[in-house]
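Progress note, project year one: complex with heme C.
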Amino acid sequence: MNKWLWPVFSVVIFMITGCGDNDATDQKLISLIQRHGLTGDPSACRIIPSIEDEKAQLGMKLFFTKTMSIPGDTACVSCHHPLLGGGDGVSIAIGTGAVDTDIFGYDRELNASEAVYYGGSTGPTQTVNSPTTYNAALQDRFMAWHGIIEAADPDAGFNGSQGGIYDPDSTYNPDNTRNIDPFAGENIPAAQSRFPVQNPIEMAGHGNEIKGLDSFGIRKILVDRLTGENNNTFLTPEQRDAWLKAFRKAYDDKEANATTLITDANIYNLISYYERTQLFIENAWKRYVEGDTTALSEDAKKGAILFFSNYDEGGANCVQCHKGDFFTDNDLHVMAVPQIGRGTQPDGDSYGREEITKDPADRYKWRTMSLLNVEKTGPWGHDGAFTSLRAMVKHMLDPSTPYDSSQIKQKGMQNLDTVEVRQQKALAQLEYNREHGISPHKAVKLSEEEVDQLVEFLKSLTDPRLNDYDFMKRWVPDYNDPESQLLNLQEAKFLPPEATQP
Ligand code: HEC
Ligand code: HEC
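Model obtained:
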């Protein structure tokens, strides 16, 4: 329903049903929806490709193939499985060098020989949690937790496809601003996908073949694998033929040769094509905003009122950061989620946005994540420090809530014994930011029942189709197809229970 019809709509409701308790709740919520200008549809005016599109189909194969990792053991999907919330179900990702690459979730472990590179620890080698690929087409400003991928013109609302993109290949100016990367690709998901393949921890490994190579050099090896250029024999002629066939189909060109079609730019634009088809926004909250007052439970409605109300109205004011129909202000804030695992600093800490801008004022700032499907995208926080949504919500209400590290289920996690020191440092930064008007956040005390209501509301942001395997299997290749064998697609043989239980 058009938001301008809401006043009429609420008056009609009032006349039909009188003024019971439920209607009071609906009226309050409807007026909050109007105040925040919500329409329920974050995809309005966007062109979203279909998963049936041939380009998306090829993008899926590239996303699933282990051929895109230098050691040949990891794919994008190893950390971003469409049946695992578009992530990997663990706090901190483990990429190349896993003991069994078909194992996903808490049982995924790093090979002991690989661990040599990380001071002998077989724990996770990344420093952050794998964010979801869901709704990648709706991201307009940042990718990654500290926004290392950034659209220069986020207001355009075009997924970063206009105005240029900053990314890890950007050069820095003397004042620490970055220059646009002319090779970034069509949009921010395309720009993003060029980097895991050349990161030793994610997909590139530590072998001799990448020694001394820059980002372009490593990606060239991958192109050569698919084309067979430079005498590359990683794939058999039969396998290369299968890729050429797939590229010819996607670009609807039966004649073109491998070197014209299988290019560095095409590969990452195709991967982004696949990611951009993952639009999962058909949730109960959207139905409510569009006018169906029966779409939400009473608890979810009360939780929504807490979420969207100001502090002085007794609300939790989550909306000041988790704004709009996509539930993000596209900005970064200090919320003092404590760093666990290796971190990027010698003491196991990580500095967030400061590591990109080199500005100490940005220390501990991380990106405000969208909350659509958040129930499915755990563990939560930039490092997956929270393994229950409820614990994450309690932290958002009051970041000084003592952190309970016993919730971490991932094996070999480093630095859990010193986590409190790092939480205190981040809290001191939050306090400083509050005192200097930089952080709008105030701690809010709610009853346990109200916390439950907030969680109920967040669950109403889940697209129920994510629980429907028959629907979701379109984002997973058909492993019975002989072509899948030839293309060396990653198959998840051991998904954790979260992936299969609604
Ligand atoms: C080892 C696990 C791993 C692999 C393999 C991996 N990723 Fe990621 N991905 C991550 C992590 C961790 C981040 C967050 C990085 C950061 O914040 O610095 C991320 C971030 C992203 C994001 C940004 C999402 C957002 O909203 O910020 C996208 C999109 C993405 N990856 C796609 C891909 C693609 C495409 C590939 C394959 C080319 C890939 N990933 C391979 C772990 C992985
Ligand atoms: C001052 C801005 C701000 C406010 C207010 C705020 N958030 Fe957040 N939220 C963030 C940031 C920033 C992150 C990422 C923090 C991190 O990972 O270090 C985040 C992360 C989250 C996450 C985890 C997302 C994920 O994918 O891991 C949830 C859930 C969440 N917030 C819910 C809430 C709720 C509920 C409220 C209100 C009680 C709230 N937030 C208030 C900025 C805010």
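The domain at 295-459 is CATH 1.10.760.10 (Cytochrome Bc1 Complex; Chain D, domain 2).
The two ends are 29 Å apart (CA to CA).
No further modelling is planned for this target in the current period.
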